[in-house]
C-alpha cells in the first residue's frame, strides 16, 4: 500500500476518540522511587545511568545501566520479594502509588469494573536466567517450582490485580519497547467501549542482568561508554552509538471524565487519543524513511481532532541508536511539516536510559508533568545534535512554555516504537 493510499484509508477509518482522565500515577525509575522525584531529577539534569560494579558484569562489553535503588523493593512484603520476579515487583510498586493517588476518584467503584493493562517487552528475564543457571549447575531439583509464574510476561498484570483485588480483566501487551504506550491505547479502548470504568495501565521491565546485557550487546544495540556512564545515552547526538539498558515501571489510573466528581482533585492530565501502525519492514530495524511511524502520529492527531499547530512539544522515542533516531526524525519532519524546525522536541532517555516495555508509561508521566508545569525538560547529551536531525531538540536547559503553569490546556505528542515495527503515538493534554 502506498503512503497516499494509507493516508486516505486511515482518514476514512479514524474516528475521534473520547478523552480519558489521568487521576493517579506512579513511577519507579533509575532517577527516583516515585513520579515527583523522577520529575525533579529530570529538571535538575541528573543522569540515572551508573557503572555496574557487580562481579557478574565484569566481563561484559557493556557494563553500564539505569538501575532502580536497591532499597525500593523493601516496601514489598517478604513473601512478595521471594515469589515475584523483579519485573513484577517494580510494576506492583508503581501501581500501588498510582492507585493511592487516585483514591479520591475511586469511591464506590466496583472492583469488577476495574481493569489492569501492564505491558512488558520481556517479562521475568532475571528469573529465567537464574533458574536456567540452577538447572545447569545443580540439576532439576534446584529449579524453583515458581519459575513459570515468576517469568511469564503477564505476571505483573496478574499480581497487581491480585494485590488490589481487581476483577475487570488483566491484560499484557507485549510489543517490545512500545508495550507501555500500547497499554495506554488498550486502556482507552476499554474505557471508550464501556468494558471498564477504571483502568490501571502502564509498563514494567527489569532487564538489567547478565543475560539482558549480553543479549542486547551482541546485536550491537548498546552503548559501551563504560568509563563515562552519565554521557553514554545520547539521543539525537552526532556521536550517539547505542542505547543504555534500564529497569523501572510506570502506571497510570485512567477514568472517563463523566465518572469524576466535581469536588475531588482535578485530573492530573488527559489521554486524548492514540495512534498506531506497524512497519512491516524488519524485526529490529525501523523503516528508514519513517513512513509508518509518521502514519501513527497522524492517526493520533486525527483521532484527537488536533492539528500540529496546537502542539506545545514532542516527546521523542529517541533511544540513541544511529538508525532509529534518524528514522524517527524523518517521521517527525514528515508529520510536522513546516513546524518541525521550531516545535520543541525532548528526549528523556538521555537521563533515564531505555526502560524497554516500561519506557512508554514512565515517559508519558514525564510528558504530562511537563504540560502541567509549562516546562519542557532538556535532552541530556544531545549536544552536538546530528546535522541530519533537523528538529528543534531542547538541549541547553528546560524550556519554559508560554503562560507558565497558569496557561490553558496544552498538548503534546509522545512516541514509542518497538522491535518488530510496533509504532504507538499518544496525544496528551494538561
CATH topology of the largest domain: Peroxisomal Thiolase, Chain A, domain 1
- Classified in CATH, the superfamily of the largest domain is Thiolase/Chalcone synthase
Portion in helices: 25-40%
Distance between the termini: 36 Å
| Biggest sheet character | 11 strands, mixed
Beta-strand segment tally: 15
Structural class, from secondary structure content? alpha/beta
SS element count, helices: 13
Number of domains: 2
Q: Could you name the ranges where pLDDT drops below 50 across 5 or more consecutive residues?
A: none
Strand order of the largest sheet: 5-4-6-7-1-8-15-14-9-10-12
CATH 2nd-level architecture of the largest domain = 3-Layer(aba) Sandwich
Gross morphology: globular
Order of helices and strands: HEHEEHHEHHHEHEHEEHEHEHHEEEEE
What is the gyration radius calculated from CA atoms? Answer: 20 Å
The chain-level mean pLDDT equals 95
The first-level CATH class of the largest domain is given as: Alpha Beta
Please state roughly what percent of the residues sit in beta strands, choosing from under 5%, 5-15%, 15-25%, 25-35%, 35-45% or over 45%.
15-25%
Please characterize this protein's 3D structure.
The protein is an alpha/beta fold and 430 residues long. Helix content is 33%, strand content 18%. It contains 13 helices and 15 strands. The chain has helices at residues 3-13, 35-43, 78-83, 86-102, 125-138, 147-151, 155-164, 179-192, 210-218, 291-304, 322-336, 349-352, 359-373; strands at residues 20-28, 49-51, 64-66, 114-119, 170-171, 198-205, 248-255, 269-278, 313-315, 344-346, 375-376, 392-393, 399-400, 411-418, 422-429. The chain has an eleven-stranded mixed sheet with strand order 5-4-6-7-1-8-15-14-9-10-12, sandwiched between helices. A two-stranded antiparallel ribbon has the order 2-3. The protein has a two-stranded antiparallel ribbon with strand order 11-13. Helix 10 crosses helix 11 (322-336). The two termini are 36 Å apart.
Amino acid at each position: 500500500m502506498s503512503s497516499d493510499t494509507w493516508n486516505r484509508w486511515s482518514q476514512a477509518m479514524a474516528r475521534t476518540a473520547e478523552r480519558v482522565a489521568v487521576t493517579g500515577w506512579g513511577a519507579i525509575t533509575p532517577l527516583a522511587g516515585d513520579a515527583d522525584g523522577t520529575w525533579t531529577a529530570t529538571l535538575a539534569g541528573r543522569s540515572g545511568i551508573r557503572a555496574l560494579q557487580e562481579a557478574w558484569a565484569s566481563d561484559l562489553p557493556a557494563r553500564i545501566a539505569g538501575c532502580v535503588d536497591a532499597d525500593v523493593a523493601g516496601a514489598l512484603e517478604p513473601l512478595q520479594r521471594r515469589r515475584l520476579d523483579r519485573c513484577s515487583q517494580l510494576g506492583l510498586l508503581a501501581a500501588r502509588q498510582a492507585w493511592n493517588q487516585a483514591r479520591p476518584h475511586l469511591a464506590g467503584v466496583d472492583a469488577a469494573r476495574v481493569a489492569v493493562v501492564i505491558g512488558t517487552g520481556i517479562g521475568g528475564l532475571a528469573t529465567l536466567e537464574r533458574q536456567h543457571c540452577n538447572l545447569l549447575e545443580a540439576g532439576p531439583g534446584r529449579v524453583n517450582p515458581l519459575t513459570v509464574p515468576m517469568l511469564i510476561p503477564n505476571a505483573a498484570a496478574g499480581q497487581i490485580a491480585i494485590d488490589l483485588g481487581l476483577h475487570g480483566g488483566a491484560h499484557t501487551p507485549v510489543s517490545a519497547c512500545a508495550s507501555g504506550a500500547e497499554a495506554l491505547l488498550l486502556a482507552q479502548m476499554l474505557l471508550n467501549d464501556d468494558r471498564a470504568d477504571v483502568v490501571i495501565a502502564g509498563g514494567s521491565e527489569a532487564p538489567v542482568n547478565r543475560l539482558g546485557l549480553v543479549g542486547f550487546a551482541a546485536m550491537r544495540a548498546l552503548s559501551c561508554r563504560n568509563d563515562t556512564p552519565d554521557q553514554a545515552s545520547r539521543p539525537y547526538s552526532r556521536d550517539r552509538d547505542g542505547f543504555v539498558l534500564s529497569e523501572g515501571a510506570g502506571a497510570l489510573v485512567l477514568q472517563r471524565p463523566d465518572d469524576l466528581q466535581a469536588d475531588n482533585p482535578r485530573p492530573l492530565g488527559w489521554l486524548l487519543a492514540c495512534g498506531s501502525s506497524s512497519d512491516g519492514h524488519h524485526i529490529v530495524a525501523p523503516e528508514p524513511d519513517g513512513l509508518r511511524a509518521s502514519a501513527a502520529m497522524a492517526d493520533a492527531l486525527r483521532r484527537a481532532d488536533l492539528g500540529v499547530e496546537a502542539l506545545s512539544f514532542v516527546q521523542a522515542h529517541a533511544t540513541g541508536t544511529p538508525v532509529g533516531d534518524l528514522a524517527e526524525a524523518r517521521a517527525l519532519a514528515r508529520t510536522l511539516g513546516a513546524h518541525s524546525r521550531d516545535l520543541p522536541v525532548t528526549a528523556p532517555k538521555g537521563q533515564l536510559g531505555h526502560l524497554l516495555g516500561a519506557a512508554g508509561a514512565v515517559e508519558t508521566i514525564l510528558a504530562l508533568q511537563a504540560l502541567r508545569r509549562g516546562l519542557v525538560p532538556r535532552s541530556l547529551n544531545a549536544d552536538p545534535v546530528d546535522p541530519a536531525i533537523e528538529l528543534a531538540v531542547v538541549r541547553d536547559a528546560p524550556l519554559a512554555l508560554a503562560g507558565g503553569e497558569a496557561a490553558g490546556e496544552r498538548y503534546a505528542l509522545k512516541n514509542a516504537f518497538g522491535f518488530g515495527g510496533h509504532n504507538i503515538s499518544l496525544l496528551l493534554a494538561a
